[in-house]
Amino acid sequence: MNNEYDVIIFGAGTAGLSAAVYALRAGLSVLILENKVQGGQILNTPQIENYPAILAISGFAFIETLFKQATELGAQVAYEQPLKVDLSKRMKTVTTDGGAYQAKTLILATGASHRKLGCPGEEELAGRGVSYCATCDGAFYRGKDVCIVGGGNTALEDALFLSNNCSSVTLIHRRDEFRAHKVTVDAVKARENITILPFYTVEEIKGDSKVEQAVLQNTKDGSQRVVNTAAVFIAVGLAPENELFRGLVQMDEAGYIVAGEDCRTSAKGVFVAGDTRTKSVRQLVTAAADGAVAAVEAAGDINQGIW
């Protein structure tokens, strides 16, 4: 594997792989750094139905095709943990647990991770009834009573998904208004085996070797309520995985990297793509678009010698 590249891409999700495809087609050399497995969040989505020109495809099939496209075009992939980024010289240096690499430009496409509740029992029972992915683990609770926590599109879509397999689904939300799309909210309210519990938070998750109960607290009067459940699915949002870049590029209060539609960060030669940047819409199609834009902008800078 080489030590110097035109572009180093952090992350092999939709944004990162799309950036690789566009960078390679522009004649650039590309290294993708991935510290887990290619795919990101979409990998666990059973059915994608909102990507233009594709009627339906699984997240796994989508990513496998995109990954094959990037690697067959010539992308190098290193499954290593980035440890340090040095922007002090014209050639940027990235140090990982497997070596050191240099590049003219960087594209940050690290995505975001699931936020946690932080309540007792959450860590202890993770993987034993506490889950952050309904589509991954929902089948394990077929015919059982489960809970899901959250009020956005993901939480409500997960509630609908779970209701197809589980005996009952209790949707727990700290408010009585949802951030999800109206059509999704209406679908949840119409589903007979979904019960909505507004104005509640999860204070504790109980169980000896697996989840058995969720202890809830009312946000209005402080009263408690216990729900018997076989699982607690947590869908309370995402946290950007940007700590490695703190102090190197401008971020907002939530930790997202500040960039406009040109995907340019505050640092010269450093671009950002996908869920990890400031934006109003975080969807598969916008991640792919970001990757394309970031790569085209990077190629333009390299061709003009202004990196």
Overview of the molecule:
By secondary structure, the protein is of the alpha/beta class. It has six helices and 17 strands. Strands 1, 2, 3, 4, 5, 6 and 17 form a seven-stranded mixed beta sheet that branches. Helix 4 packs parallel to helix 5. The longest helix is centred in the last third of the chain and has 21 residues. The protein is elongated, with a radius of gyration of 21 Å. The model has no long low-confidence stretch (mean pLDDT 95).
Quick recap of the structure?
With 307 residues, the chain is of the alpha/beta class. Helices cover 23% and strands 27% of the residues.
- What is the gyration radius calculated from CA atoms? 21 Å
Low-confidence regions: none
What separation lies between the terminal Cα atoms? Answer: 23 Å
The H/E string reads EHEHEEEEEEHEHEHEEEEEEEH
What portion of residues belong to β-strands?
Answer: 25-35%
Sheet with the most strands?
7 strands, mixed
| Total of DSSP H or I helical runs spanning 4+ residues | 6
- In total, the number of strands is 17
Class per helix and strand makeup: alpha/beta
Shape: elongated
Average pLDDT metric? 95
**In percent, how helical is the residue content?**
10-25%
